[in-house]
Amino acid sequence: MTHTRTTTLVLAVLALGAGAVVTRAWMRAPRLEQPVVPMAAAPVHLQAEVVDPDFSPARSAEARAAVSRAFGNAVAVVQDEAAVGDFNGDGSPDLALAVRAGAGQAAAVADPLANWTVQDCVSPPARHPVAHPAPAPIVDREPLLAVLHGNGSRGWRDPEARQAYVVRTGLEGAWGARPRDAYPSLAPPPGRGIHDVLAAARAGGVVYWAGGRYACSGPARSSAVPVAVLP
Q: Measured between alpha carbons, how far is 229 from 56 in angstroms, rounded to an integer?
């Protein structure tokens, strides 16, 4: 009887010890981190639409103030006639007008670290890459087109509107907003329907959004060769 009790006690002690070891090992074992499932991006047609956008014409003073907010003193307005329209198809009013580099600011306009994007006025990219000569440096008094994309219903008038482009058109004079439907030869707009393009008042050139950049059609020239500018 005594031997049986002793054996039972030893087995109980061993069982308790084994349980303690297993428990400690389980507590110390690192837990595997479960992967986070990324949320799917909202489809384009589910993105919020701009409600009651303000497409009223731009007054000279407010257009100049918007250009100053976006570009500082890097560019100077040369035409008070500003174009207002939805140029990139997001439903928010955008602003565009003719400018030149400010006095001694040509290098600042072309600065790759600037808060705007400088683009040569070329046709949309072809399906097969084509080599183009490097654009010439921006020169003083070179005709430029400044475009400021809008934000929400206030569009370019919103103080948070800062997405800006400088397009090297090589064309003098004012620009106006025109319905894109009036130019059926242009490539189909990417994404949502795009309502407006920019048309040169003098030479008939057209600048339009091609998805991620502006493209040109008509007599607007590439800046690979220095343009002739008027005094």
A: 32
Q: How far apart are CA 99 and CA 122, in angstroms?
A: 19
What are 17's two structure tokens?
């010890």
| Closest listed residue to residue 161, CA positions, set 148, 142, 146 | 148
Q: Which of 230, 174, 170 is nearest to 198 (CA)?
A: 174
The amino acid sitting at 180 is R
Cβ-in-10-Å burial (0-12, 13-18, 19+) of 7 comes to exposed
Q: Quick one: 40 exposed, middle or buried, by C-beta within 10 A (0-12, 13-18, 19+)?
A: exposed
pLDDT tens digit string along 71-92? 999 999 998 899 999 999 999 9
Instruction: Look at residue 58 and give its three-state secondary structure.
Output: coil
Neighbours of 80 (CB within 10 A): 14
Question: In this prediction, what percent of the chain has a pLDDT beyond 90?
Answer: 49
CB 164 within 8 A of CB 116: yes
